[in-house]
Specification:
Length: 142
């Protein structure tokens, strides 16, 4: 009997997790739009994806990006699972197709009110933010 209950519980958990992940795309947001001169800007051509990867995975302060956005950029990081709304899922093309490099830069620099996204204007230089944007866009945004 205990094995049956455990099996049912595990199956229920698997379906619940799978269905939650499926609803994670697209992600509606009411994030403030960047000023047009920033939203249209794209400095990723001169940015370093390798440095962006280091920042994303380890060096960004106060928390590395992956803590919320996850190793796979899917918004399923250890801390991100507890945030409402969930962190941005960079692998969701339905969501990311309308998010410009400049908008990403603006959000990383200034944060996003009503979400767990903190501002990094005091902890990352503009060049470093562009490096992170390039890494994210090359790794997951298609």
């Amino acid at each position: 009997m205990k094995k049956i209950i455990l099996t049912v519980a595990l199956i229920t958990l698997a379906f619940t997790t799978s269905s939650w992940a499926a609803t994670n795309c697209p992600q509606p947001r009411k994030t403030k739009a960047a000023p047009s001169n920033i939203a249209s800007k794209d400095m990723t051509a001169k940015a370093s994806a390798a440095n962006g990867k280091k920042l994303y995975n380890k060096s960004a302060k106060p928390l590395a990006c992956k803590m919320c956005h996850g190793d796979k950029g899917d918004g399923m990081g250890k801390l991100g699972k507890a945030l409402k709304p969930n962190p941005r899922n960079f692998t969701c093309s339905d969501t990311m197709k309308d998010v410009s490099a400049g908008q990403m830069f603006w959000i990383i620099k200034n944060g996003s009110a009503g979400t767990g996204m903190a501002a990094h204007k005091k902890t990352l230089k503009d060049k470093q933010i562009w490096d992170v944007v390039k890494y994210i866009r090359e790794s997951w945004v298609k």
